Amino acid sequence: MAGSGQPRVSLRRRIYEIVERVEGDGILPRLFTVGLVTLILVNVAAAVLDSMPEAARYRAVFRAIENFSLVAFAIEYVVRLWVSVEHPRGRGVAAWRARLAYALTPGALIDLVALLPFVLQQFADVNLRVLLLVRLLRLFKLARYSTGFQALFEALRRERHALLACLLILISVVLVFAALMYTVERDAQPAVFGSIPQAMWWAMETVTTVGYGDVIPQTPLGRVIGGLTMIAGIVMLALPVAIIATSFAEVIRQRGFVVTYVMLLRIPLFQKLEREDDSEVLPMLRALTINAGATITAESRSHHGLFVVVDGKVEVDHPDGRLVLGDGDVFGGLPGIKVTESAHATYAVTMVRLLLLESVDYVRLQERRPGLDERMKAALAAAPAAEGV
Questions:
Q1: What is the pLDDT of residues 172-225, one digit of tens each?
Q2: How many domains are contained in the chain?
Q3: What span, in angstroms and rounded, lies between the C-alpha atoms of 94 and 111?
Q4: What is the mean pLDDT of the chain?
């Protein structure tokens, strides 16, 4: 409507908001997401069934699904590449640089792999089994929409140093026991323990508790070493499994909903911070969903972090009157930063989605990002104030 004062939104921006689910509860973003997820699942199911000789009579149906999927995935890739300049990370950057940066992201590379079967069919003589394998890789496109995939990737990212240490220890254990078995068993079984690399196959299948049974120690000392290798294998496998499981459960507990970079940049507080600060803060945020009427923080409880309202209404029990917080408002506090008093209880008026930056994580961020404390205080001071009632 002319004269309304609202800036006109470009077509590219509207498509970007649909594709990237900026308005996650809208009808069009939901239809786009459901449609693509359904197409991916149908495509993967067709690839699996296509490998069965009994399904030969349905090959025409499978070909039709494949052709339709290739067209749909190609359009999706081109559209995402076109609108990628609207992403907050692309602000202040040349359009070609923003698109190139997007094209190199894991999600874009997976989207490109989804188009690979067409390229292989047109320009290379590829075995049908290889083609089916490539088509099954489209399953990873679900990572963009699945909180489970995202939680697993985040857990692996968080624990990458610990997992690398476990891998190095595992390689050391395999090498040591392979060398021991080579020394003890090479005369009894030169065909399978004639060198340390040959013995490493036995050590690997024993440490991983697979136990194919194709190589068995013959000497008494060799069997003792085999038993020790089994025990070491149980211990070694327990370490990475426990690390990943614990981290995965923690990520799932923290994220009551998916927190994306786009969502973060819609909140006034994070719009005021530097782009590098936002990238560091994102993995530290804990997402909470609170039911209407529930207490968020009780009276006289010291704040253990900064809360940001993503969606819903929060009421602060203030002595001067009821303070209502809405989308984008903040409450709580961090070390050296106090937004609301700890003596003021907070309640969820409606179902509320919150982001929580815990104090212990904020201290770690300060160590990595010098000057973050000053920038956070300035951003909080510039954020819009909540309304009192």
A1: 999 999 999 999 998 888 888 989 999 999 999 999 888 788 888 889 999 999
A2: 3
A3: 23
A4: 81
Instruction: Tell me if 354 is assigned to some domain.
Output: yes
Q: Mean per-residue pLDDT for 83-109?
A: 81
* Parent domain of 20: 11-144
CA distance 323 to 321: 6
In 3D, which of 348, 365, 379, 388 has the Cα closest to residue 267?
Answer: 379
Same domain, residue pair 364 and 379 = yes
Domain boundary, last residue among 224, 254, 284: 254
- Three-state DSSP at 371 gives coil
Neighbours of 146 (CB within 10 A): 14
Alpha-carbon span 373 to 228, nearest angstrom: 52
Burial of 91 (0-12, 13-18, 19+ CB in 10 A): exposed
Identify whether 99 is part of a domain.
yes
The set of residues, in sequence order, having a beta carbon less than 8 Å from that of 225 and lying 6+ positions away, is: 177, 180, 181, 184, 217
Query: In whole angstroms, what is the distance from residue 69 CA to residue 39 CA?
Result: 7
**CATH number for the domain harbouring residue 219:** 1.10.287.70
Percent residues over pLDDT 70 in the chain: 85
Decide: 333 and 339 in contact? Cβ < 8 Å.
yes
The CA distances from residue 11 to 82, 86, 97, in Å, are 11, 11, 21
